[in-house]
Amino acid sequence: MRRLNRQCTPAAKKLVGTTALDISPTVDLLAIFAHRDDAELSCGGTLARATEQGYRTGILDLTAGEKGTAGNADLRGEEAEHAAGVLGVAVRRNAGLPDAGLENSPETRLIVAEFIRLLRPRTVILPYAQGRHPDHRIASQLAYDACFLSGLAKMPLPGEAHRPHKILYSLAFRENNVKPTFVVDITEQIETKLRALGCYDSQFAGKTWAGELFPGGDRPLYDQVRMHAAYAGSLIRTEYGEPFISGETMAVDDVVALGVRSL
Asked: What are the tens digits of pLDDT across the range 44-101?
């Protein structure tokens, strides 16, 4: 744990507070999750990979995590900024909605839709629309609805109408029985993902679980994250991966170039 933090903090200090968040807030890929650390646990490797591919990435945390058992909102905010720096995330914003009290209401949809218009992502990653924590279930539908409303020109929102092209759902440990639409190879990003998680000392130090995303066992949390990524990677014949669901059938341009051997 301490080793991860020593690696995390210097990299974060180089990026946090120096990125052009207000000058150029738009992103290509945006992860919207209920709590600080949810995006790192669910799709941190994918965010890191997209950054390395030259895309601008972002995270929108819907709450400050003020009702969490461990730590507090201010500390979690600092940890979140450090983790964003490790992943190379260009923009991290917080919607300021109530932790453990998320609602999918006309008011909250407008708040999130305003962020969508500001950030203008092409692709959005959301939590899978099931889960033990009410905030996770509601965050998924709330963000989906906000993505739609953001594209309506006559909504009482600042900025030009914008609707993301693609919405993806990240599958967590509890959804291992759900077959993913596709898996992103994060073999080269797994250590970056773990370093980002290592920034959350208040949440993960000495833990063998991380809420419903990694519900616990005898092994340290970081081992569980690595094993989950290894399982997802095995589905595409690679070392580590992150699984996703898409509501739409994926188009293929070249059937001869399809990856992952069948036999």
From this structure: 999 999 999 999 999 999 999 887 767 688 999 999 999 999 999 999 999 999 998 9
Q: 31: helix, coil or strand?
A: strand
Residue 103 CA, distance from chain mean position: 20
Q: Going by DSSP bridges, is the β-strand pair 123-127/166-170 parallel, antiparallel, or unpaired?
A: parallel
Residue entry with tokens 């070249």: 254
**């600042």: which residue's tokens?**
158
The C-alpha angle 50, 53, 56, rounded to 5 degrees, equals: 55
Which domain range does residue 87 map to? 2-247
223 in a domain, yes or no? yes
Domain CATH code at residue 228: 3.40.50.10320
> Under DSSP, is residue 212 helix (H, G, I), strand (E, B) or coil?
strand
Strand segments, DSSP code E, in the chain are 29-33, 57-63, 91-97, 123-127, 166-170, 182-185, 241-246
Which pTM does this prediction carry? 0.88
CA distance 130 to 125: 15
In this structure, what token pair is assigned to residue 31?
Answer: 């992860």
Residue 257 lies in a domain: no
Number of domains in the chain: 1
User: What span, in angstroms and rounded, lies between the C-alpha atoms of 92 and 25?
Assistant: 9
pLDDT, tens digit, for every residue of 123-132? Answer: 999 999 887 7
Within a domain: 137: yes
